[in-house]
Amino acid sequence: MEHKVRDPALAPRGKQQIYWAERNMPVLMRIRARLEREKPLAGLTVAASLHVTKETAVLVKTLAAGGAQVILIPSNPLSTQDDVAAALAEEGIGVYAWRGMNEREYYNAIGFAISHNPDLTMDDGADLTVSLHKLAHGIADKTLDYVTEVAKGVDFVKVASKIRGGTEETTTGVIRLRALHKEGKLLYPIIAVNESYTKHLFDNRYGTGQSTWDGIMRAANALIAGKVVVVAGYGWVGKGIAARARGLGARRVIVTEVNPIRALEAVFDGFEVMPMSQAAEIGDVFITATGDIRVIDLDDILRMKDGAILANAGHFNVEIDVEGLERIAKSKRTIRPYLDEYELPGGKRVYLIGEGRLVNLVAAEGHPSEVMDMSFANQALAAEYLAKNKLGIGVYKLPDELDAEVARLKLEAMGIKIDELTEEQRKYISSWELGT
């Protein structure tokens, strides 16, 4: 397959990384063995816009084992592991990815994926899906010029009409695609993989909870014990980050929220809750996890104490007002890899990790393989489901029985057994007649 990676010579190291991930992803490996026998994806092209990591490589190789031709592009300019990209290219995957892409290169990659006329799309953040829909609907966007530089002469309406369906991995992406459907512009069915319990209950909470702190500690080498940590957003990602902050010995963990139910939940979980304007004055480490824009704005940054550390765990680099920070900073310098120091008017300094992009993938390796095992098992099963079933246009949840199958396989791989309902118990909980 045609490919474009940073350095093909990195392939041997990438293969070792993929091997390690495969050792720790038993659910997906079980699914791979079945797909390899049955070939449900034979003859189909899958265009996947995902973080190009060793875990993603296990998913991609599983899709290929099921008979698919796979095109892999990144879903973030800074998250690609170049050795993994090289290893996949050597194994015949159409990879167009390298770490540190600029905006033009990132959207060129989307053009590369679209130009292969896919049957299925697989997304993390919805940039691939949304770009194709904008082009098909004739919606102007500067980034689309970069897409069409590579996808020259492509009939985007025809490409979209051929697609059987797509999948979406993230909360942010699902929000975008539901909005697209609400406006009547969605052109093919989407399975919201993020809504599977074995995805968001584990990946978002335990995976991001751990890997976010991994990225912060690698970048800043900061001691978390004794610090005041501020977590913006108390969805599943925020819950995981706050819980891990407490476990690392943070002196205070403060949550900021706009949703009263989530704010109340944070209070009942034992965390302080207050507005960001108040938290900004007392926090040592700030982490955004909301999916919204300028959650930490310039006024908040100017209130922060000298030495405050800022990190983002949301999908896009819009949650921290990086543009405003760049505009007012007296100076900027890189102190450590992925750690930039900004001197503010008045002499205070704040430290931004990874340009405000996904801290766990920019400054670390992303989620542990064990948790991505379930997330990507859902992706593989969603691709198979779309290949076998014709869905109407809409945004769907993966069937509950497939979600439960992922959990069953994970427990089996961990050597854990659970009880089963007796016939009497099944009858009791399914009947309206039986009671006290």
TrEMBL record:
<protein>
    <recommendedName>
        <fullName>Adenosylhomocysteinase</fullName>
        <ecNumber>3.13.2.1</ecNumber>
    </recommendedName>
</protein>
<feature type="binding site">
    <location>
        <position position="257"/>
    </location>
    <ligand>
        <name>NAD(+)</name>
    </ligand>
</feature>
<keyword id="KW-0378">Hydrolase</keyword>
<feature type="binding site">
    <location>
        <position position="204"/>
    </location>
    <ligand>
        <name>NAD(+)</name>
    </ligand>
</feature>
<keyword id="KW-0520">NAD</keyword>
<dbReference type="InterPro" id="IPR015878">
    <property type="entry name" value="Ado_hCys_hydrolase_NAD-bd"/>
</dbReference>
<dbReference type="InterPro" id="IPR036291">
    <property type="entry name" value="NAD(P)-bd_dom_sf"/>
</dbReference>
<feature type="binding site">
    <location>
        <begin position="170"/>
        <end position="172"/>
    </location>
    <ligand>
        <name>NAD(+)</name>
    </ligand>
</feature>
<feature type="binding site">
    <location>
        <position position="124"/>
    </location>
    <ligand>
        <name>substrate</name>
    </ligand>
</feature>
<feature type="binding site">
    <location>
        <position position="199"/>
    </location>
    <ligand>
        <name>substrate</name>
    </ligand>
</feature>
<feature type="binding site">
    <location>
        <begin position="233"/>
        <end position="238"/>
    </location>
    <ligand>
        <name>NAD(+)</name>
    </ligand>
</feature>
<feature type="binding site">
    <location>
        <position position="367"/>
    </location>
    <ligand>
        <name>NAD(+)</name>
    </ligand>
</feature>
<dbReference type="Pfam" id="PF05221">
    <property type="entry name" value="AdoHcyase"/>
</dbReference>
<dbReference type="InterPro" id="IPR020082">
    <property type="entry name" value="S-Ado-L-homoCys_hydrolase_CS"/>
</dbReference>
<dbReference type="InterPro" id="IPR042172">
    <property type="entry name" value="Adenosylhomocyst_ase-like_sf"/>
</dbReference>
<keyword id="KW-0963">Cytoplasm</keyword>
<dbReference type="GO" id="GO:0071269">
    <property type="term" value="P:L-homocysteine biosynthetic process"/>
</dbReference>
<feature type="binding site">
    <location>
        <begin position="313"/>
        <end position="315"/>
    </location>
    <ligand>
        <name>NAD(+)</name>
    </ligand>
</feature>
<dbReference type="GO" id="GO:0004013">
    <property type="term" value="F:adenosylhomocysteinase activity"/>
</dbReference>
<feature type="binding site">
    <location>
        <position position="360"/>
    </location>
    <ligand>
        <name>NAD(+)</name>
    </ligand>
</feature>
<keyword id="KW-0554">One-carbon metabolism</keyword>
<feature type="domain" description="S-adenosyl-L-homocysteine hydrolase NAD binding">
    <location>
        <begin position="204"/>
        <end position="366"/>
    </location>
</feature>
<dbReference type="Pfam" id="PF00670">
    <property type="entry name" value="AdoHcyase_NAD"/>
</dbReference>
<dbReference type="GO" id="GO:0006730">
    <property type="term" value="P:one-carbon metabolic process"/>
</dbReference>
<dbReference type="InterPro" id="IPR000043">
    <property type="entry name" value="Adenosylhomocysteinase-like"/>
</dbReference>
<dbReference type="GO" id="GO:0033353">
    <property type="term" value="P:S-adenosylmethionine cycle"/>
</dbReference>
<feature type="binding site">
    <location>
        <begin position="235"/>
        <end position="240"/>
    </location>
    <ligand>
        <name>NAD(+)</name>
    </ligand>
</feature>
<feature type="binding site">
    <location>
        <position position="203"/>
    </location>
    <ligand>
        <name>substrate</name>
    </ligand>
</feature>
<dbReference type="GO" id="GO:0005829">
    <property type="term" value="C:cytosol"/>
</dbReference>
<comment type="similarity">
    <text>Belongs to the adenosylhomocysteinase family.</text>
</comment>
<feature type="binding site">
    <location>
        <position position="169"/>
    </location>
    <ligand>
        <name>substrate</name>
    </ligand>
</feature>
<comment type="function">
    <text>May play a key role in the regulation of the intracellular concentration of adenosylhomocysteine.</text>
</comment>
<comment type="pathway">
    <text>Amino-acid biosynthesis; L-homocysteine biosynthesis; L-homocysteine from S-adenosyl-L-homocysteine: step 1/1.</text>
</comment>
<feature type="binding site">
    <location>
        <position position="53"/>
    </location>
    <ligand>
        <name>substrate</name>
    </ligand>
</feature>
